[in-house]
Amino acid sequence: MTTLLQINASLNNGNGQSSQLANQFVAAFRKRHPDAKIIVRDVAAADPVPHLDAERFGAFTTKPVERNARQQAVVAYSDALIDELRQAEVIVLGLPMYNFGVPSQLKAYFDHIARVGVTFKYSDKGPVGLLTGKKVYVFAARGGLYAGTPMDTQTGYVRDFLGFIGLHDIEFVYAEGLAISPQSREAGLAKAAAEIARLAG
After folding, report:
1. Grouped pLDDT means (10 residues each) for the chain, 201 residues
2. I need a labelling partner for 128 at 20 to 30 A (CA). Which of 59, 85, 145, 177 fits?
3. Predicted TM-score (pTM) of this structure
């Protein structure tokens, strides 16, 4: 049985365009894999991931035998997020663009799953990701036109971070120009839908 993890990062929950694009892909995936297990993690709206602070970071760096109850709870939360990733063969990320970057809650999610000795390790040749053998689909929704330009700060960052923890097989689908005009919005969504149909075929 295949397990798919869908990560939604829109502040608008299921109404966000990136979430809707991810939903379209997951619906098509269900048709091809009716016995698949689907895990949905909403990191921004339904169940926001706490932003990293000194206390939470300290929990990660404290030796397990020395952690107090609060630190144990922080690490258990992080472990649960990582376990979802470990379970999944397919990862689907709904990615809105906010002020040229990723949602801060998605950054917080990344901060909670980047754990030395757990999702990556250091070697004499540099860091090595430990979450390997998975396929990632990223559905990026933008109001303007940024893909392939210096203003697309998302793609490189997301690709680099996922690669850092071992996720290298990544496919990006863009729906752009959604705020320019009704015609641009329609064209951007149509292009993304065609890509989803191709990937689901």
Report:
1. 96 91 96 95 94 96 96 97 98 96 97 97 94 97 96 97 98 97 96 92 67
2. 59
3. 0.95
